[in-house]
Structure formats: C-alpha cells, structure tokens
Amino acid sequence: MSEQCLPTKRFCFGSFLGLKRYDDSGQSLVSQEITGTLALATTYFDGGVCKWENWLKKLATETIILCFSTLGPVQFIEEAQAAAIRANASALIFAASPTKQLVEEVDVITTVRVDILSGTRIRNYLARSPTVPVVKVGPSKTVIGEITAPSVAYFSSRGPSSLSPDILKPDITAPGIGILGAWPPKTPPTLLPGDHRSVEWNFQSGTSMSCPHVAGVMALVQSAHPDWSPSAIRSAIMTTAGTRDTSNDLILSGASMKPTDPFDIGAGHINPLKAMYPGLVYNTKTEDYVLFLCNIGYTDQQIKSMLLLHSESSTTCLPSHSCRTNADFNYPSITIPSLRSTRTIKRTVSNVGPNKNTVYFVDIVRPVGVEVKIWPRILVFSKCQQEHSYYVTFKPTKISSGRYVFGEITWTNGFHRVRSPLVVFLSNSGFVAK
Fold first, then answer.
1. 219-254 in b/e burial notation, b at 16+ Cβ within 10 A?
2. pLDDT for 17-27, tens place per residue?
3. Are 356 and 382 a contacting pair, CB within 8 Å?
4. If you count Cβ atoms within 10 Å of the first and of the last residue's Cβ in the chain, which end, N or C, has fewer?
5. Phi and psi at residue 181, in whole multiples of 5°?
6. Cα dist. 365→296, 405, 410 in Å?
7. 12 contacts 35 by C-beta, under 8 angstroms
8. Which residues form the Peptidase S8/S53 domain (predicted)?
C-alpha cells in the first residue's frame, strides 16, 4: 500500500464502563456514527463461522458482530459481510491475519478490519465484561503520517520468474491499493449478492491500478527525454526506485512485519521525480533481445519475423549464445540463477546526467556467502551519452544446497545514485570445481 493519507475508521467500546479502545488500522468510508452492542459470531452463526449458509436465523439488529477469518475458515471478507447483512447486523468487526489486511474500499456494510491479536483482545474483553459492551464506530477521518507506507500487498505477485529466472521480476512496485477511479453506474461497486448501489466513482486495488501509475511516470520521463528508448526509461525508473518506507526502514511485505526483498518489490518503489534524472541508464540493444529469445527457445525464423526490415542485427542463434545466459542481458538488475563457481557478467551504462564530465564510484552490498568484485570500480565520463562497461564477478564463499541471497551495487557521483539489486541463488553443495 503506497498511500500516506488514509481514510480510517475509529471505533471504541464500553466507554461508559471506563474503557476506551481506539483502532485506526481499519480503513473505510463511513459518513456517520454507528452504535451497537458487541456480539461474537457464535451467537448468530453455526460454529462462529461467518458465512451465508451458517446463519442461525437469529436477527442481529443494532448489533456489531465480531468475526474471525480463521474460523471456517472465511477466505474472503465479502463472505463475512454477506453473512452480517443476512443477519441484519449494524456493522462487522473482521479479524484476519496481518498479511491479509486489505481495504475492500466500498463496503456494502460498515466493516472494521483488525488483526488476529486485536480481535482476540476484543473477544476476551467481551468475555470478561459484566454487561454487554456497546461499540461506537465513528465517521472516517483522514490520518496523515500514522501509518508507514508503502508496503507490499499480500496478493502482489512475487518472483522469481519461472520463464526466465536469470532476470529479476518484478521490476518495480507502484501504488495499487484503494485507487479512486471512474465507475460504470450500472455496475454495483462490489460483487456481493444484493448490492444494487449505483456509483460513478469507486476504489479498486490490484495490478490494473499500479500499471496506470507506471505508465504515467513513463510518459513523464518520455516528455522530458523524447530521445530516450523504452529500455532507458525502464532503467531510469528501476535504478532510482526506493526500498525504504516513511519511517526510513525497509518496506514491509504484506503487513507481515517482514522486510521485503527483491522478489517482493523488484528494484523498489517508483519515484517519479528521481526517475527524471537518473544520471546513468542501462540501454538494451537488439542483440540483447535476440540473446534472450534464443535462450528461451525461439527459432531464427520466429526472431526474424519480429525485427524491422532495416535492422542490421543478427537474427541467428549463434553457437556463442549457448555460452551466454540471460544474466548477460544488459538489465538494470543482476540475477544469477545458480551460482556454483566463479561467474563474471558484464553491464554497460550511458551517461545521461546534466554534466558531461563526471566520475562515478561504486558501492557494494554483498549477498551473504558471496564475494562480489567489480572492475573497474571507477567510471570516468567526458561527454554526454558516453558508454562505459564494467564487469561483476561472483564467487561463492560458503557451501549451500540452494538458497537465495540478496545484495546491491550503487554507482554514485555525489549527486546521482544508480542502484541495481543483486539476486544470487547459491547452489554449490557437492559441486567440485574443475
């Protein structure tokens, strides 16, 4: 989730009993205060499983029901919402794993999302209370800076790539949770049965929401640099991406409190302003794509059909290609899918910074168990668009039967920081170097 400004729901219970509890982790749009008595799902649903078919035919009028995703289990929050509506509840408190905390944006019934620990505390408070607690759900308020962002949604696709494990995927992350956009009025905002609402705007989440953000940034960079190739723009976006959240800690994965790695976020979270001025870019040439297509099984004829007639590049899968993997593809990230012995790869960068005379120095964060050497360690540029190549040598320093380790290399001239993730799969157990 990439937003820093979040609509939240505040709820408290039993304030007249001397106890107040506020939870701003839930997100939703509520226009007015809702009050109801607190009840466990077991009162209204067989086995406490909040599903439509489990309703015990008891009405929960003016009641706010506490449901747990782990009972049943309830795979989707929409199931619990539909069940609460059938029971005529006023609202729903839904407890789920932190990795599954996601705003469903336009709820058909007022819903407060909490994690399992908070839900258990609420349940225990209800069990100990001498009287039935009353819950108040207040109107939504915009809260700034209280929730760290961004974080990676639990449903976001992770690497490695099954098609080409020697190229890091994903490339980048971008805002994709709770994105407001136009909506066809004849289509209800949710897929729940009985939702007959008509809206002109709706909140949506998913890759289809992230893609327009990235497309917009690419258009922005293209407008500033109309002579740049698509690969140069991709490089600018990837090498300037961030890996830290608003608290300056590593971006978290799916609210699980686990720091992300390149398989979660790729090169990092997109930064439009920095992408405008990357300093250096990794340009991908036709030869790189021919190498890639040869390595994934395309024939000479298939490759030839993809190239323009005036292209001077070879469309033949030469014998030399068999000695080169897609790790040699001039990509802004570096992935070694099986490191068993010393391996060297090459990268080429172009100077696109404002100064034609500039010097870049390299900084290395080595993956655990891997020695990384770069030559040369200094790149001296004397003109714009000048290209320089460097070589990265990887050498395993420990025995491993199969483990991914991560690092990064960063080229800097004191103003620009050109960062590339390193992904290495150590697999040298039982390997004897010749």
1. eebeeebeebeebbbbbbbbbbbbbebeeeeebbbb
2. 333 333 444 55
3. yes
4. C
5. -155, 170
6. 30, 11, 9
7. no
8. 143-244
